[in-house]
């Protein structure tokens, strides 16, 4: 890449990679108050004209020489070689565009864009401006990895009573029993933490697992409001989504309380309810501590989006054929879109996904 300056004798002539920008800077300077005052001062420098400058310009006037109708800037010596850019929003957008998004720029990123741009141009708070511009770059958002790969922990709701909410899992690879079964199915009441176990063969499927649930849980405790489960190889689990490990409600269950109790029975019920409230508070406090510890270890992706917002969709959990023709290649984009947010469901969003992608629209 050529130098930002060409030297003619002892003069430094600004020559940025995009010379057409200089004409834009000149035209904007004619309408910028500070630039006009400095140009007028250098046209006829004197102590009287210097006193007419604003205080912030008067103290730094030695840093702003003029060359070919352009204000130059140097913070440390007299070799001023950076063109001063007036406070014009459109111009400040076009200049980073040429250094970040131009055909020959190659999207170098924040630090390199700032390095290249500041060799040719100067304005106040330049680094902050470049940082915001590069952060909003659509191409960069598509290909760069997200700074927080994990969203904040979405804790499961606290159960209100025993066997209202259970968790279920399958464990394999255990020593075989007398019937050559090497796995177990585990049912856990999330309120009391009671555990029920049953041996299963390694090739167990959904139907025998469901029969075990009916025999061990439903027969004694009724139907839970929700069942939390993780993906298990070889078993088609109900109410499971890899991207949303919280399973939805299975069925609504109304509990009727007969109020024809004696005073002693009512007192017993109240004592039981006090114990239940204590357990609820303890579980909620434990869940809060777990969430706090998890969020302190890099879970910083807590963005929320509004309906009709445009968002990019991460491709790490999508089938490769829906992303691009690159397959498993590292050249495949990390994000696709943008898509319009159609609805919000708690922490999930329904997007306007084209039907040709054959994807469920809620993520």
UniProtKB/TrEMBL annotation:
Residues 327-363 form the Tf2-1-like SH3-like domain. Pfam families: Integrase_H2C2, SH3_Tf2-1. Residues 88-145 form the Integrase zinc-binding domain. This is Unnamed protein product. Gene3D superfamilies: 1.10.340.70, Ribonuclease H-like superfamily/Ribonuclease H (3.30.420.10). InterPro entries: Integrase_H2C2, RNaseH-like_sf, RNaseH_sf, SH3_Tf2-1. One of its GO terms (molecular function) is nucleic acid binding.
